Every structure is written in C-alpha cells, then in structure tokens.
Amino acid sequence: MPKFATLHHSILRCFHKCGTVDHLNQTTAILITSGLSHHAFFLADLLRSPTKDLGYPLLLFDRLATPYIFLWNAIIRGFSGSPQPQMALVAYSRLRNHSVVPDRHTFPVLLRSFSKLRNENPFQFYAHIMKFGMDFDAFVQNSLVSAFANCGYVECCRRLFTENAKKDAISWTALINGCLRNGRAAEALECFLGMRSTGVEVDEVTIVSVLCAAAMLRDVWFGKWVHGFYVLSGRVIWDVYVGSALVDMYSKCGYCVDAVKVFNEMPTRNLVSWGALIAGFVQCNRCNKALEVFQEMIIQGFEPNQSLVTSALTACAQLGALDQGRWLHRYLDRNKLELNLKLGTALIDMYSKCGCVDEALFVFKKLPAKDVYSWTAMINGLAMHGDALSSLNLFSQMVRSGVQPNGVTFLGVLSACAHGGLVDEGLELFRLMRCDYHLEPKVDHYGCMVDLQGRAGRLEEAIKFIQSMPMEPTPGVWGALFNGCMIHKACELGEQIGNHLIKLQPHHSGRYILLANLYSRCRNWEAAANVRRLMKGKGVDKSPGCSWIEVNGVIHEFIAFDESHTESFHVYVMLESVTAQLKLATCDLDSNILTFAIDGE
Questions:
Q1: Spatial distance between the Cα atoms of 469 and 442, rounded to a whole number of angstroms
Q2: Which of 36, 72, 348, 536 is the most buried (most CB within 10 A)?
C-alpha cells in the first residue's frame, strides 16, 4: 500500500507538470505499460491534466469496466472548459446510455458549457434536473440561471431566480451576469440595487459584474460610488479582478487618468489588468501611450496573450506604426501563438492602415476560417487603398462562401464604390442591403451614398437622396454633399450647404474653414475673408493639427506650431531650407495650397 501511494504521488506530479500534449502522451504510456490504465484514481488525475487534450483519457475511459460518476463528471468538466464544449453534452448522453445516475455535481459542470454554446437549448437538461429531484439544489439552481442567461432566455432566467427559495450572493450575481451577457446593463444595476435592499452580502465577484455594467452604460458616477463605498472602504477585498474591473470601467468612461491611478495602486497585477489599461488607452485614442504600456508590460516579464496583442495591433493601426506592428507579428510566430479570428482580423486591419495591403492579403489567405469581421477588414483595406474592383470581387467571394455581410461590410463596399466612381454598382449594393439582406441602412450608409453621388457630380440626385432619408441628416451627411460641391466647384450650392453647416455647428472650426476653402477655390477672396472674420468674431479657434511618424520603431508626435518635441529646432530649420529652395525654384503655387488645412470629413 505505501508503494502504491508513492507511485500515485509520482504519477500525479507528472500529470501536473504536463505542459504539452507530448508530455501527456508520455505519462499516459507509463500508465498503460504499468497496467494502471484501468485504475479510476489515475484516470481522474489524467482528466485533470492542464493540457486540455481529452483524446487519450477518453480511449482509456472506454476500457473501464465500471466508470464511476465522479469520472463522468471529470470528463464533462474537461469538455466544458475545452475548445469543444459541445462534447460535454455528448458525454452526458453517453453517461445516460450507460444507465449511470447523475449527481448534484454533474449538472453544474454540464451547464457550464453553455457559456460557450449560445445556440443550444438548456430546457432538455432542465427536464432531467427535475426528473432526478435536483431542482431545489441551490448549486444546481444557480447553474441553471447562468445557463438560461447564456442562451438568451433572460425571462426564464428571472423566473428561475424568483422560484429560488435561497437567494444568496451567488444566485444574485448569476442573475446580474445574465443581464450583462444579453446587453441589459441597466437591468443588471437594478438587480444589484435589489440585492442590496434584501441585505445579501456583496462580494468581490458581484462588484466585478457591477463595474462591468457601469462600464457598458458609461456611468462613471455609479462606478465611482462603487469604488468608494465598497473598495476604498474595505467592504470588499481589492484583488486583481476588482482592480482590473475598475481600470476597465474608468477607461471605457473616458477617465484615463483615474484608470492609471487605480492601476498604479493595485497590490498585484496580471495580464487582465495590463490588458484593461492598454485597451483603455486605445479606446481613449491615446494609442502611443498604449504601446508604451505594452512595452513596459513585456519588460516586467509578462508574456502577452492573444487578446493583448490584438489591442497592441489596434494601436499600431491607428498610429500607422508599421515597424511595431511587424514586430508583433514576428512575436506571434516566434511564440507560436495561435492566429485566431480576432488576432488575424487585427493584423489585416493593421497592415491595411499602414499601407501594406499585400501583407494584409497574405494574412487573410492564411486564416483557416474566416468570419464576417475578417472578410470586412480585408474588404475595407482594399477600399481604403482605392482598389474598388478588388474590394467588390472580395465581397462577392464572401457572399459565395456563405458568410452574411453586416452593416460595416456594406460601409466598406459603398466607400469603395464612392472612391472608385462606381455609382451604378453602389446604388445596386444599397438596394441589395435592404431587399436581399434585410439590413436597415443607418445614417452612415446614407452618408456614403451622398458621397458616392457627390463625387460623381450628381449633386441634384444627392440632394434628392438626402430628402428621402427616413432620419434627420447629420452634419456628416451634409459634409459629404459639401465635399462634392468642392470637387466640382459648385459654388452656389456649396455656399448654401456651408452656411447651413455653420448654423448646425456654430462652434465647429472646420465648418468655417470648409466654407472659406470653397470661396478660395472659386476665387471669391472677399467672401473667404468675411468667413474668417466671422470665425474670429465668434471666438472659434481651429484645433491645431497633429501627426505621427514612426522612425526606427519609435513613434514621434508633432502638433502644429508646437516646439515641445526634442527635434523641433532641426525640423523647423529643415522646413525653412525647403521653403527657401522652393522660392529659388520660382514654383507657382496653386491657390488651392493657400487654403486652410482641415482634417478630412
């Protein structure tokens, strides 16, 4: 017996050290050759190995004369947390075929698989729960609430919760999470207030869910109240999960300074907390800072996962930081991180926005499976580079492959048509969007159509299109028409639209500058001067232009008329030199160059 205990301990250590499938196979071979593969305790250890490869354990499992219920539970638990959660349902079916009676631990691990199986029906298992008399077990009831919520049955979830005689923190949190998973953040906060009114003690898990709801609603004041009342007061423990939720909440609400303060005060950090801060900086359009934090994380010894690399790639895309984006791509290959759909889509978007559409296509073709987001990223990338025909061809391939386009996909192809002058194709796509795909066009789609017709010189058709819109046209839509007037020097119509835009946004400097540019383009210098005087008289200041450039992997930011950059002196010296050479070359400057600069509409 002592020898058996020693052997069990040694093999258990081997299982816990299994980091790869090869290690697991070697340890399994020891079990088989030593004649212990039929022993239930060793098989249970094998099922708990961290590799998540259940192929070998299943083969050994089938050889057992009497598979015990705790082994069935281990198999179901393994599949529930694996990339194949549907196999947990198959394992339960096999359990019943062997006439094994499930216990109170079976259904919670089985129902956990529904967090990844949103289209499955949990009602069939609810019938079994009632059949075996476990519908009053608190552990099983809480798991049922989560399963119904994960599958979108929020009303059933609420009814189950109401029938629960013992409503503890776990059941309340399951209900709150159920509302969150279905986009009902306001209801989640109402549930939390109801929980407080009943006197149930709030724990750290509940606080994390509540902070997620506040983040979804962008309700920073509710989030700050939770932060002060529960976290700073010590009513809940400030662990890494609470800290990460706080960082995420402040970031999504646009309070990056508070997010950094919380992050710096966190007692411990993990990849989730680093990821929350990096994603927050990206969301607040502080992409340069996001990449700095990413680099600091690596320096401190943290190895980024796929989600973190995705956030960093998004920052590179916004900045046009090609060198850093390529380094991240090499990091993925070097560390053999799986190129999942989100990561592949982020790479496609980064290469497209950095001007490397061929590399984006290379990544796109390497993806083993493609969803609507990866197709859309590539379609938008081609459209961005003016390759309208390739963009439309890829759209056709996407439809033929059985992937349904969404609203963003249509924005990409309509934009491609606008920049490629393909008016008839754009009108047909707009019709298909409504009639064939039953997607209701939003204001951005109407803006694309106005831009399409305006660029092509069909200004009257563009006006009629605006008049037919089911919603109020936004300044962006009017701006698209104004852009058409600029291109085709339609001064009278452009003047009307420009004045209308100023009325809509009297404090938007760009509206005045656009109208002044139109007058300058039409050589109406007096009117252009009057617009500038009007702008000055109303105290409207133009926001200084900002640009980035990547040199040897370092992002440099430049702001107009700002001399804070360390190389500003040399930059201005070079600029003066270029200006002097232009004068010597007696260059004839077109009057268009003398117009005000403005960000593109």
A1: 10
A2: 348
CB 273 within 8 A of CB 248: no
Residue type, 124: Q
pLDDT per residue as tens digits for the range 140-195: 888 888 888 877 788 888 888 887 767 888 889 888 988 898 889 999 999 999 99
Q: State how far the Cα of 17 lies from the Cα of 51, in Å rounded to an integer.
A: 10
Alpha carbons 210 and 537: distance in angstroms, whole number: 48
Taking a C-beta distance cutoff of 8 angstroms, is the pair 371, 403 a contact?
yes
In this prediction the pTM is 0.74
Distances (CA, A) of 426 to 429, 432, 486: 5, 10, 21
CA distance 15 to 1: 21
| Whether 149 contacts 178, CB under 8 Å | yes
Length in residues, the chain: 601
Beta carbons of 73 and 113 less than 8 angstroms apart? no
Q: What tens digit of pLDDT does each residue of 544-574 get? A: 666 666 666 666 666 666 666 677 777 777 8
Instruction: Give the per-residue SS3 of 53-114.
Output: CCHHHHHHHCCCCCCCHHHHHHHHHHHHCCCCCHHHHHHHHHHHHCCCCCCCCHHHHHHHHH
Instruction: Supply the DSSP string of 537-577, one letter for each residue.
Output: HTTPPPPPPEEEEEETTEEEEEETT---STTHHHHHHHHHH
The separation between the first and the last C-alpha atoms of the chain, rounded to the nearest angstrom, is 79
Contacts of 499 by beta carbon, 8 Å cutoff, 6+ apart: 515
Give the number of C-alpha atoms closer than 13 A to the C-alpha of residue 556, restricted to the C-beta side: 12
Instruction: Output Rg (C-alpha) for the chain, integer angstroms.
Output: 30
Distance (Å, rounded) from C-alpha 71 to C-alpha 215? 41
CA of residue 392 relative to chain centroid, distance:
25
CB atoms within 10 A of CB 466: 19
Structure tokens at 150: 């994960």
Amino acid letter for position 318:
Q
- CA triplet 465, 393, 361: central angle to 5 degrees? 120
Distance CA 196, CA 204 (A): 14
How far apart are alpha carbons 557 and 564 in whole angstroms?
Answer: 10
- Nearest CA-CA partner of 309 in 323, 298, 299: 298
